[in-house]
Write a structure and sequence with these properties.
By secondary structure, this protein is α/β, with parallel strands linked by helices. It has 12 helices and 11 strands. The N and C termini lie far apart (48 Å).
Length: 329
């Protein structure tokens, strides 16, 4: 009898009904490629997602939460029901290309120590998206707090050249620090070994933390450039590239980074990051206040943005105290 690998696909949904429908439709096209089980965890959506699932998709498991518990906790919920060889975390705003799941599994099976395989994310326009993630460092996060400056220093065409450089190495085992959780295949044994995702990360950075932890346990993290998954990017949260996000996304990202620095750097690094972020938020708040003072139709919007950034800086002051005393961990 021919061996067919088993894969449990876990999708966390929060008010992305139409994107989720498309994602599940793409999975229907590839059901015969592997022995696939699909679990959708709905985080208290209010857009009719559950009704859509009930009426259109009867061949999957739906776990309905009464509140939005975040990505990490929802993924861990799904893994409780996983009996497959592999566990695929998949964002609802994705479209899985044919043979993508097979190629992820084939890459994992090339070495029994490969614990995580990331897909190559691509935009629906054909642009290569960030699929490999780096360890946290202060210089990188400084630029992320000034994404407008980052866009000038790293123009889109240069970014595309860098991102596409791995495509020339198709077929190779390419070890990387971390991969995007938008489409991440994990060997089930490795997931159990690491204890799943850290639920202190509400959303964002949990995949970096997980990848770094599994590597410390002896597992390899690799990227599969020929496993293509199309991605709309941050449909649930509204996060946009080259723009500092608004609350609550800004708070989730900054809190997650503080935890990430402490877990994989040091308590001192975490405190330094929080202080740096606090100063930069205040600078941005001041610039918004000056823009509001200048006047114009957007005056009230600039005032609100300034107040939002000031509040974010105040909240970070609490994280500074927690980081210095070790209360984040």
């Amino acid at each position: 009898m021919t061996y067919v690998p088993s894969v449990t696909v876990a999708i966390v949904n929060y008010n992305t009904r139409e994107a989720l429908r498309n994602c599940l439709s793409s999975l229907r096209r590839v059901l015969n490629e592997v022995n696939m089980t699909i679990i959708v965890v709905d985080n208290a959506s209010s857009d009719g997602s559950l009704a859509m699932l009930e009426s259109e998709f009867h061949d999957l498991t739906v776990l309905a939460n009464r509140e939005n518990v975040g990505f990490a906790r929802a993924i861990n919920q799904a893994f409780v029901s996983c009996t497959s060889d592999f566990f695929l975390m998949l964002n609802p705003d994705t479209w899985v290309a044919k043979n993508a799941v097979v190629r992820l599994v084939e890459m994992a099976e090339r070495d029994p120590k490969i614990g995580v395989v990331g897909a190559q994310l691509t935009s629906f326009r054909g642009d290569t998206l960030q699929s490999v993630l780096a360890r946290p460092n202060l210089a990188k996060e400084f630029l992320n707090l000034f994404p407008e400056l980052k866009a000038v220093l790293l123009p889109p065409f240069i970014k595309q050249i860098l991102l596409r450089s791995r495509e020339r190495r198709r077929g190779e085992i390419i070890e990387v620090p971390a991969v995007s959780g938008g489409a991440m295949l994990v060997r089930s044994v490795a997931y159990k070994d690491a204890g799943g995702l850290d639920e202190r990360f509400f959303v964002y950075h949990e995949e970096v933390d997980f990848c770094l932890r599994v590597q410390k346990l002896g597992w390899k993290v690799v990227i599969a450039p020929d496993a293509q998954v199309l991605h709309l990017e941050a449909l649930s949260t509204g996060f946009k590239v080259n723009r500092l996000p608004s609350e609550p996304v800004l708070g989730w990202r900054l809190t997650g980074l503080a935890i990430l620095f402490e877990k994989h750097g040091s308590r001192r690094q975490s405190a330094r990051f929080v202080r740096m972020a606090q100063i930069l938020l205040k600078v941005r708040a001041l610039l918004c206040s000056l823009r509001a003072w200048w006047g114009g139709e957007m005056r009230e919007n600039w005032k609100r943005r300034s107040q939002e950034l000031e509040l974010a800086a105040v909240r970070l002051s609490k994280l500074t105290k927690h980081s210095e005393s070790g209360l984040i961990s």
